[in-house]
Structures are given as structure tokens and as C-alpha cells.
Amino acid sequence: MIPLSVLDLAPIAEGSDAGQALRGARELARHAERLGYRRFWMAEHHSMPGIASAATAVALAFVAEGTSRIRIGAGGIMLPNHSPLQVAEQFGTLASLHPGRIDLGVGRAPGTDQAAAYAMRRNLASDPDRFPSDVVELIDYFRPASPDRKVRAIPGEGLDVPVWILGSSLFGAQLAALLGLPYAFASHFAPAQMMEAIQLYRDRFRPSGQLDRPYVMLGFNVFAAETDAAGALLATSLQQAFVELRSGRPGRLKPPIEGYSEALPEPQRAALDQLLSCAAIGSPASVRSAIEAFVERTGADELMVTSQIFDPRARLRSFEILAGCFA
Fold it and tell me: C-alpha distances in angstroms, 319 versus 7, 222, 256, 314?
């Protein structure tokens, strides 16, 4: 079986708060480390009542201090919100404290709505085509020192911080291929162009100093429980969050509801079906079968598993069941 990793948004559940969510993220990272998962990544989102990972580098520092072996990284940092130098310094600091364990995935979406993007940037007129040059600048800050460099990332310079390109469209696939970087596709929430993006990336990949062959990691939802019915019930928390987000009413993660999707209008049910086309839900046998079929279909090199589960104990158990499926 290919390597399995974890993507966590530090979900803030109803009746909880951001502190509990971040402590829960660290507990999940420790759990994943014990179970043999390769990476633990967190994602940058802003102005979201149900997500506590906005200050992603700070959250990752907290998680890294509570673990010892598992790779820690961003999946991802939304580069238009930051200067490349600031990101290099932040992740250079993490890499200095935790050598050989830090990953840096970057994306070009804002990770929020236009109002919050304006609050961060104070200007939405920036050129979206600048993302590729920002990525190149960021990578350059991690290279060894050179006499002609006027601006240096300290910490950061000369450190081994692998940079990944994240995406949910063909743009990121083309950029990752051109720069010879590993590519992570957000199939866990935007699967529509997944197969086309994978093929484009592999066809156009150019080897680089970081990577000599294409490497694809795919986002994947898992809701594992003792039975198919129990797993399906767990998944309704994600379904509610997705419907509320699409309706412009993002909120805290809600407890599961029996028969939730059946009561929705057809357009919303169709959207949920597409969302969960990259998911394994149910008993250990069902989860294993779904993942094997997905890996065979996509040829993924690694899966980045996310589980938006309301009950923290059920979430830990879901990752335990998944690891047991391929032990």
C-alpha cells in the first residue's frame, strides 16, 4: 500500500473552542505518528468559525513540539496572502527546530472570501499570475547562501524544506510539472479535474534538484467505523459543513444526523455525491476496498487523508481503523 498521511483543519466543533481544536490536532498528530502515518499537514483558512488553523505556522509549531518523527507541514500556505520572504522565514524557523521533518505546500487561492482577503492584503488588485514567480522566489530563499544575494531568509537559507504545489485545477498541475515539484491535488473537496490534472502533471514533468520523477499526493476523505452504517453517520458532519459553506453560512462542525442527505434538495445531494466521490466510508472492509480501487484508478503515490468527524474519539478511531486496514 502507498503511504498514508493526514490533513487536519483543526475543526472547531459545536460546544468546543479553538484551543480545544488545536489541542485535538496535536493529539491526532501523536496518534498518527504511533500508527505509522507519514505526514501531518494543516491548512490555512481565514474567517471560518469552524476552522482553527488560520495561523498555520504557529499551529504547526505547536504540533511539531508534541511529536518526534512524523513529518509536519502545510497543506497549504496560501502564498498570495504572504510575502515569500515571510513564509521562508517561518518555515525556516520550523525546519531549524525540527530538522528533516518540515514540508511546505503552497497554493494560490486566498483560503477565504473576498472580504477577509482584503482585510489581509488591503488590495485585491494584485496580479494572479504572480504566483509562479512567488514560488520561484520562495524556493530561492531556501538555497545555500550566495555572495550576490541582497535579501536572505534567516532562518531558512540552506535548509532542506521541500516545497509542494497544491491545487484543485490544471494551473497547479502545470506549474508543479514545470518546476519539477511534488503535486498535491485537493480531490477531497474539488475532485472534478483530478484525473486530467494528474495526467497533465505526469506528461509535462521536468526533473529538478528536488525531485527526479513525478510524485502525486491526492486528498481523500475517510470515515471509518465498525459498520457501514456507523461510518455513513459520521460522514454527515462533513456533509452539513459542505452544504453550509456552499450556502454562505460557514459554521462550527455539527454532530451527525441520521438520514441528513436524503432530506436535501436534489442539487445539494448531487453536490455531496461529487464531494464524496473521493471518499471511503464505512466498515474496515468497505474502507479498504474503496481505497484500493481509488489508488488503482489514479496511480496515486500517496494519500492525504482528512476526516471531518464531530466526536474526537471517533476521529481517532477512524484513523486507527484505516491504518489497520493496511498493516
Answer: 11, 8, 18, 9
pLDDT (tens digit per residue) in 264-304: 999 899 999 998 999 999 999 999 999 999 999 999 999 99
| Backbone conformation region of residue 10, classed left if phi is above 0, alpha if psi is from -120 to 50, else beta | left
Q: Which of 23, 1, 3, 20 is nearest to 12 (CA)?
A: 20
pLDDT score of 255: 97
Phi/psi-derived region of residue 79, left when phi > 0, alpha when psi is between -120 and 50, beta in every other case: alpha
The pTM assigned to this predicted structure is 0.94
- At a CB cut-off of 8 Å and minimum separation 6, what does 219 contact? 7, 184, 185, 186, 187, 188, 189, 278, 303, 304, 306
The CATH homologous superfamily for domain 4-222+285-325 is Luciferase-like domain (3.20.20.30)
Tell me the C-alpha distance between 130 and 142, whole Å: 19
What average pLDDT does range 114-120 have in this prediction?
A: 74
Enumerate residues 6+ apart whose C-beta is below 8 A from 34.
none
So where are the chain's domains?
Answer: 4-222+285-325
Q: Long-range contacts for 142-147 (Cβ within 8 Å, ≥24 apart)?
A: 142/88, 142/92
